[in-house]
Amino acid sequence: MIGLDGKQAPQCIVCQQEKADGITVCGQFICTDCERAIVSTDVSDVRYKHYVDCMKRIWWRVCP
Amino acid sequence: MWWIRIRIRLAGGAEEVYYVGGSEALPPPLTKDEEEELLRKLPTGDPAVRSMLIERNLRLVVYIARKFENTSLYIEDLVSIGTIGLIKAVNTFDPSKKIKLATYASRCIENEILMFLRRNNKLKSEVSFDEPLNVDWDGNELLLSDVLGTDSDTIYKNLEEEVDRALLYDALDKLSERERKIMELRFGLGKGEEMTQKDVADLLGISQSYISRLEKRIIKRLRREFHRMM
């Protein structure tokens, strides 16, 4: 998806879709829909484990 | 093993906190002025503001996650769960309240990890007490119930109680002086002993039924504050 600025929209690390709006933490993009979903999801929810796994992308940096 | 490297890196000290599996240092914390400016803009809903507040508080996540390293979770899970807590904190933080973001975020991060641990413990406790662990030469089974001593979640219970207590005192700060006084007298918060509604009513010169109504209203409010903080 191409944004209004002509740039390729970033891919969300949670839903893997290209979206225009969202937060970027350490270069990793989370779309607004997924951010809202994360905020409202309890640890007992089946989706929670998936979110935990996705968050690892923020922390992972390849060793030099 | 790569996760051992992480543990060594994370245990390196407060100044040098590295990304999981890498040598790159985490973004530095915000200065007081930077944070004030971002918190002023937070209610506008700008994702860039939230991004910055989350990114520059990641060290807080590492700091808190490290406190739980002696649990069943690996550090990479702990920091991921903590990150979710931090995202929740930034999304629910109300700058108009007289509380620092770091204080609020710390509670949210810690609470997120504790909730996850509690959930895991519950799942583990679903294993049958009659689960055979071993069988001897005579065919006698050693059952899980034979070796169970104390509750497996005793340690976490204490931690959770500490957090709950801290949250309660924060919530109490939101009450008026009179409301707080009623709660302190009724439930013996602090050093005092619990008093009956009648005793509190007599002490404050109001009727017992009025105390009862006030009490219900205050507890409802405290519960709301509690949920908001969690």
From TrEMBL, chain A:
InterPro entries registered for this protein in UniProt: Sigma-G_inhibitor_Gin
Domain of life: Bacteria
Listed name of the protein: Inhibitor of sigma-G Gin
Lineage: Bacteria, Bacillati, Bacillota, Bacilli, Bacillales
UniProtKB/TrEMBL annotation, chain B:
Gene3D superfamilies (alphabetical): 1.20.120.1810, Winged helix-like DNA-binding domain superfamily/Winged helix DNA-binding domain
Top-level taxonomic group: Bacteria
Domain HTH cro/C1-type, residue spans: 195-216
Classification via PROSITE patterns: HTH_CROC1 (PS50943), SIGMA70_1 (PS00715), SIGMA70_2 (PS00716)
UniProt key word Acetylation: no
SUPFAM superfamilies named in the record: Sigma2 domain of RNA polymerase sigma factors, Sigma3 and sigma4 domains of RNA polymerase sigma factors
Any GO MF annotation of the entry: DNA binding
GO biological process, one term: sporulation resulting in formation of a cellular spore
Family: Belongs to the sigma-70 factor family.
Protein name: RNA polymerase sigma factor
Lineage of the organism: Bacteria, Bacillati, Bacillota, Bacilli, Bacillales
